[in-house]
Write a structure and sequence with these properties.
By secondary structure, the protein is α/β, with parallel strands linked by helices. It contains eight helices and 25 strands.
């Protein structure tokens, strides 16, 4: 009897898993089905570049079904709920899909409806997001007409998808305004619920100093209570107020609604899993990968990539009746655009914060960690080709899934001054 592997979500993690396992599972013994609500696979890192005209809209999307290997069945439908006891997924169109193993890879989504006032009269007039295709395109139009006033970049609450993206947007906005000759007419403000510019101390100090050098005001520890859209002001629970002329906000991020309807999620609809195996804490035949899980590391494409490498080998051991021996360490690796054709690179995991040094090879690099270089910028731009042609098809990348300390420097007074 054919066994069923069902994957909910055809984003980065879901596509990689289906493609890698299709090549390693017996096609006569295993059927792989992938479900997603539409047939448009977005290159989500490209959303950052749309407002500044670096990418065009036609460079962002490709059909989801075309990214899947031959022998993977694609179903375009909305998921209604998962019945974990019956090993069955119901779709909103009434169809039922049974599974032997289920992978939830449904990602995370911005939810502006969760903050009072965000979807008020100023939404897409003076309040914008760039974590969606529609939002990034609308912001591109708004920026073209903005040449003076207060531009506020705001994070509602952590965790968010790609936590460095708000800083990248701020640095790019600073450079873009300089290029247009209007930077001295715009006050730039970065508002975050974190105590500093980023989640990790060394990176937070380094990135915070970059904000200061660019005369960008940092407003930390800001827990938003509401947006007064008539006054165009952010209001926090401790009654601080931050006025804006143009607000670029990152709304609360949440997992898929079907996760909540199925009783599988936490308060933000993320599936609680073992952070080393990605196996559900409640159901041994369910895994959550990519942004859909509650693992304590960045919700980033690199995490999806490295964790899928571990998951695939573990899954093959599991179905062979063996213990899963792979252990994901939370490895994350992110380029940070800093404007003027430069960028940084950070590399960290559950236990080790971003440090200076070189990557992926000690001494030779060629990428520099926590240092602005043109090479890092070019690496970020080159990743789009790698994403479509190597990563999604499941081809091997010469990067270890586990973080290495080789080439990294411990934090000292000297490295802080670099």
């Amino acid at each position: 009897m054919t066994r069923q592997l069902l994957v909910l979500g055809a984003g980065t993690a879901g596509t990689m898993i289906a493609n890698k396992l299709r090549h390693r599972l017996d096609a006569g013994a295993w059927e792989i089905t992938v479900v997603d609500r539409d047939d448009l696979h977005p290159y989500q890192p490209g959303y950052l570049f749309l407002p500044f005209g670096i990418y065009t809209p036609d460079q962002i999307h490709r059909p989801r079904h075309a990214q899947l290997a031959d022998g993977v069945r694609f179903v375009e439908a909305e998921v209604e709920r998962v019945d974990a006891e019956a090993h069955r997924v119901s779709l909103t169109d009434g169809r039922l899909l049974d599974y032997d193993y289920l992978v939830i890879a449904s990602g995370t989504t911005p939810r502006p409806d969760q903050t009072p006032g965000m979807l008020g009269s100023q939404w897409r007039r003076s309040i914008f997001d760039f974590y969606t295709f529609e939002g990034a395109n609308a912001l591109a139009t708004a920026l073209q007409g903005f040449d003076h006033g207060r531009l506020v970049v705001h994070i509602t609450e952590m965790p968010i998808k790609c936590p460095v993206a708000p800083l990248e947007f701020t640095f790019l906005a600073d450079a873009w305004l300089h290029e247009r000759g209007v930077r001295d007419r715009v006050e730039l403000v970065f508002v975050t619920p974190l105590p500093g510019a980023f989640t990790k101390p060394v990176a937070a100090e380094h990135l915070g100093s970059m904000l200061e050098e660019r005369k960008i005001l940092l407003e930390p520890d800001f827990m938003i209570e509401r947006i007064d859209d008539e006054a165009k002001t952010l209001v926090s629970y401790d009654e601080r107020e931050i006025p804006f002329d143009l607000l670029v906000t990152i709304p609360l991020n949440m997992g898929a609604d079907f996760v909540e309807r199925s009783g599988l999620g936490d308060e933000l609809n993320y599936v609680p899993v073992n952070k080393h195996t990605l196996q559900s804490k409640a159901h041994a035949d369910i895994f959550a990968v990519g942004d859909a899980s509650d693992i304590p590391t960045s919700k980033a494409g690199s995490v999806a990539h490295f964790s899928v490498e571990i998951f695939v080998d573990n899954f093959l051991e599991l179905i062979a009746g063996k213990p899963m021996t792979g252990s994901f360490d939370g490895h994350a690796n992110c380029f940070i655009e800093s404007g003027d054709h430069k960028g940084l690179l950070i590399d960290f995991n559950y236990d080790t914060e971003p440090l200076t040094g070189s990557y992926p090879l000690p001494l030779a690099g060629p990428m520099a960690l926590l240092k602005e270089t043109r090479r890092n910028h070019l690496g970020k731009l080159a990743f789009r080709w790698i994403y479509w042609n190597v990563l999604l098809p499941g081809r091997p990348l010469p990067l270890p899934a586990h973080m290495s300390m080789a080439g990294k420097h411990a934090v000292t007074a000297a490295t802080k001054e670099e």
